[in-house]
């Protein structure tokens, strides 16, 4: 699920080396992202987990931030896990540009 979301972001970049590859990931449960902190100030819950994934984009390491949020329980299957992901490039110059491009659809 996380990898599929990262691949959606990676589609914005031309890739001539066989696609991105996962280099590493780190769990950072105690480090709340600025976006998650802002959301909490206006009443949203904090994520229950956070990961930073670094992918290799043709020799260039690119970091993604993933916040995991508790989802709503499915009344038909209350024991099934329920969560949603907020996957986005880390807030670097290039990451900010990717976020802007995606927001405005170009």
Structural account:
The chain is of the alpha+beta class. It is built from three helices and four strands; from the N terminus they run αβαβββα. Strands 1-2-3-4 form a four-stranded antiparallel beta sheet. A hairpin with a 2-residue loop joins β2 and β3. The longest helix is centred in the C-terminal third of the chain and has 12 residues, at 93-104. The radius of gyration is 15 Å and the shape is globular.
Summed up:
By secondary structure, the protein is of the alpha+beta class. It contains three helices and four strands.
What structural category characterises the helix and strand content?
alpha+beta
Biggest sheet: strands side by side, in what order?
1-2-3-4
Helical fraction equals 25-40%
Report the sheet with the most strands, covering strand number, pairing sense and barrel closure. 4 strands, antiparallel
Count, helices: 3
Radius of gyration: 15 Å
Q: Tell me, what's the shape?
A: globular
Q: Please write the string of helix (H) and strand (E) elements.
A: HEHEEEH
Multimeric status of the protein: single chain
Low-confidence stretches: none
- On the 0 to 100 scale, the average pLDDT is 92
Beta strand %: 25-35%
Ends distance? 24 Å
DSSP, total strands:
4
Helix-strand layout with pairing:
Elements (H helix, E strand, L loop, with lengths): L1 H9 L10 E7 L6 H8 L7 E9 L2 E11 L12 E7 L3 H12 L2
Question: What are its keywords?
Answer:
3 helices, four-stranded antiparallel beta sheet, alpha+beta, 27% helix, 106 residues
């Amino acid at each position: 699920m996380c990898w599929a979301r990262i691949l959606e972001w990676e589609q914005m970049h031309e890739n001539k080396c066989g696609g991105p590859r996962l280099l590493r990931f780190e769990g950072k449960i105690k480090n709340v992202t600025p976006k998650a902190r802002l959301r909490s100030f206006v009443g949203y819950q904090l994520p229950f987990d956070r990961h930073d994934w670094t992918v290799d984009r043709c020799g260039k390491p690119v970091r993604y931030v993933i916040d995991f949020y508790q989802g709503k329980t499915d009344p038909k299957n209350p024991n099934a896990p329920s969560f949603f992901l907020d996957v986005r490039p880390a807030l670097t110059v290039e990451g900010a540009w990717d976020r802007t491009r995606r927001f405005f659809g170009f």
